[in-house]
Amino acid sequence: MRKVRTEQFSRALHEYGCDRFPANFELYEIGDIIYGTMGDPNILEGIMRRDVKVEMIGLPLLLRRGRKLVPLLALGDYMAKSCSHRVRLPDRIIEKILYGRTVTVKETYNFRKGLLIDGHSDFVAFITLRSRKKGTEIIPDLDIGWYLRAGG
Amino acid sequence: MSEIDSYLKNHESLLYTYHITPEIKRIADKYGFLEYMVERYLEFLGDQTEDFLSSCSLPLTKSIRCNSLKVNCGELEKRLADRGFSLTKIWWSRFGYRVEKSPPRPSLGATVEYMKGFYYIQGEASMIPPEVLSPREGELVLDMASSPGGKTTHMAQLMNNRGTIVAVEKNPSRLRKIKSNISRLGVSNVVLLSMSGEEVSRLGMEFDRILLDAPCSGEGLIPLDPSRKTKTAPEDLKNFQRTQLTLLVSGFRVLRRGGFMVYSTCSIAPEEDEVIVDFAVKYLGMKVERIHGIPGERGLTSFKGISFSPELSGCIRTYPHLQYTEGFFICLLKKE
Ligand SMILES: C[S@@+](CC[C@H](N)C(=O)[O-])C[C@H]1O[C@@H](n2cnc3c(N)ncnc32)[C@H](O)[C@@H]1O
After folding, report:
1. Closest residue (by CA) to atom 15 of ligand 1?
2. Which residues of B are catalytic?
3. What whole-number distance in Å separates Cα of residue B175 and Cα of residue B191?
4. For A2-59, how does the pLDDT look when each residue is reduced to its tens digit (9 = 90+)?
5. Is residue B158 helix, strand or coil?
6. How close does chain B come to A133, measured CA to CA in Å?
7. Contacts of A95 in chain B (CB under 8 A)
8. Which of A148, B10, B47, B133 is the most exposed place for a label (fewest CB within 10 A)?
9. Tell me, what's the ipTM?
């Protein structure tokens, strides 16, 4: 477990149209997950010095997968507020995506990685966008339905 | 012999000797409970015993806690109403609602609002301990038995995500649930540790407030899980008592002077409730702070010939036949 700086994650988030780290957190790395917290740093450092098994510190924000960094659902809420690659779709299409389905829409977009938001502008999923003859295919990478499927 | 051992030994014969009459047998048989349980209910519920036993077969009204960290609660009410849910505010709670009516679909645990972390499905009485402990922004708080995180995340809400909650969980297989809830609800001030509550002194810290929502028999959850009518033997209660007392003493040691501890269980067993708090008062010198403004019955001041400190009437108990909630025990203690 170690403290890490936000700058090194900016590139990973750039592909979602984020020009800075979207949340004001202190970051800590445990295993392959980067966590963010607003907890008191002195207390956290006190705990880190002890011989105890820390499972998480605040919100899980990013996952290291090989050399790539993948954003996690808790960061999606913040990214959807401050990054530009947003895709807003009607709720009946969102429902399909929450069932893990891929959908095709007639709109076109000039980015490949995006944040899917619903009619209330709330974050729903990280998506990959693929150009198709008749529009864009929207593929969910990680959506909030995960909490029902795998959250336990 | 340790203080805990001798305390348990002193109470053992009074607590665990049962006089089963034909009337007790009849009632136990009628409602499908173990005989020793009914013997105790007659002692502390008296002529309400059968009301209690029959209420254990009725479903409880579901309730949710609006997550003010992610949504405005008025807005949540509106959005759930649009889906066909009808909510009424629980008057004494800052974030709690009873779900009076639900549509056939989606279920309460499968709405988009649930996935967005706008609420947590939680028994009404489970919302009492954090409200009573009332942690404030900036404080250092310990949750000694935390998964699945219902009360941890509630406390984070009361603290507005500021300050620090150290949440401890002993059972590794229960970590996944609390992690998922912390993430879904957007709680950013929790440090989750995989360790047993008995070891908290290793942290080398003093806490402003402590929640000890102790592992217990779950004797208050019978309306939700009928198997509990026959699941717990007196021997199990003895084991829970030992764990509860050990956790209580470990928590006491890391609570700062002037700090507060809530001891709670989802059990109505006096063995796991007043017997434990009486130890806190008589052996640790803790003071019971009387709970006001929350519906409940008063803590017992005697049971099976054991007299507890009169202060214990400041604790509260909830029951399905009186408060229409799961059975719970909550006590606020102060370290002087
Ligand atoms: C009553 S449940 C806690 C419920 C939780 N406070 C909530 O509101 O969601 C008790 C928890 O304590 C854990 N536990 C049992 N023994 C423990 C110990 N010695 N130290 C810490 N946790 C323990 C159990 O695994 C269980 O998750």
Report:
1. B215
2. 266
3. 12
4. 888 887 888 889 999 999 999 999 999 999 999 999 888 899 989 989 999 999 999 9
5. helix
6. 31
7. 112
8. B47
9. 0.96
